[in-house]
Amino acid sequence: MTATTEPKRIVQRGLWFEEFELGAVYEHRPGRTVTEADNVLFTTQTMNTQALHLDAAYSENTQFGERLVNSMFTLSTLVGLSVAQLTQGTIVANLGFSEISFPKPLFHGDTLYAETKIADKRESKSRPGEGIVTLEHTGRNQNGDVVAIAVRKTLVQKKPS
């Protein structure tokens, strides 16, 4: 490269519709370690007064023995962990979620790791230049236990011509 030559510039983005490969599994790294502050802030911002998230004394006497991370925080973080790799700048819209479950709880200090399987894709019938991609997100803690599963349909841009 000479002094007058501009370097090649690469902008991080998600995948265009054509780049999604059916059956491929993307592992999203790094993971996200959840703190007490994360949980309390999210829970109070969303007006969720559930004692299992906020009241340490109450939670000590439950089957869990401690406070649980708000499952909506877990879901939001699970999806968020996938954005840079899959949908940054290429998504048009979330079309909906289905089959959301939380097989095991997440606790303060746990690290959430995410992976996404491309379950389905098809061209949009009503929106030229876009396609619908079905993503199966799975969240695991640092021990490999599944703590969240969500199926999400997204509307994604096709690669510009």
From TrEMBL:
<protein>
    <recommendedName>
        <fullName>MaoC-like domain-containing protein</fullName>
    </recommendedName>
</protein>
<dbReference type="InterPro" id="IPR052342">
    <property type="entry name" value="MCH/BMMD"/>
</dbReference>
<dbReference type="InterPro" id="IPR002539">
    <property type="entry name" value="MaoC-like_dom"/>
</dbReference>
<comment type="similarity">
    <text>Belongs to the enoyl-CoA hydratase/isomerase family.</text>
</comment>
<dbReference type="Pfam" id="PF01575">
    <property type="entry name" value="MaoC_dehydratas"/>
</dbReference>
<dbReference type="InterPro" id="IPR029069">
    <property type="entry name" value="HotDog_dom_sf"/>
</dbReference>
<feature type="domain" description="MaoC-like">
    <location>
        <begin position="22"/>
        <end position="139"/>
    </location>
</feature>
